[in-house]
Amino acid sequence: MAKHCLSCGMPLDGKMENMKNLKNNDFCVFCADENGKLKSYRESVIGIASWLGSFDKTGNNINYIEKAVEYLKAMPAWAEHEAEDITGMDKTSLIKFDIPDSCQSCGVPFSPETKNTEMYCSFCSRENGELKKRNEITDAFEMWLREISPEKEGVDFRKRAEHYLNAMPAWG
Length: 172
Hints:
0% strand
């Protein structure tokens, strides 16, 4: 089974093994500090919001802070976390990321193996480039979240998959 960051979902093995936090194998270098401790909720919201804003090509006026709060509800490290006050956080809080283009539906970074169209990866779109139906993609994310989550008893993975997709530019 592939290893993923429990806070953001980043792959932590294969080509991405260098992103693993050396002090805590449950988190990536972006989500944990140099001692392996999970960063604060506010730091995580800013990080995810910045990431979402860095690859959005929809042209919509999206509140990435709100989208990040929604996204974190899907991740094992934050799913049961009580939402915190994010007053004062806005687009001026975001960090400029220089990342590869990513799928507008799921956030997967494009590579020659994954890119299908300018907007969508091969997992989220059909051969003709048409975006798959939301329920198909939700099904796939439900399975992925079930796979990466250490906690399985009593978890509503469908609801978590919905939170994840609600944060993505194509579905928000």
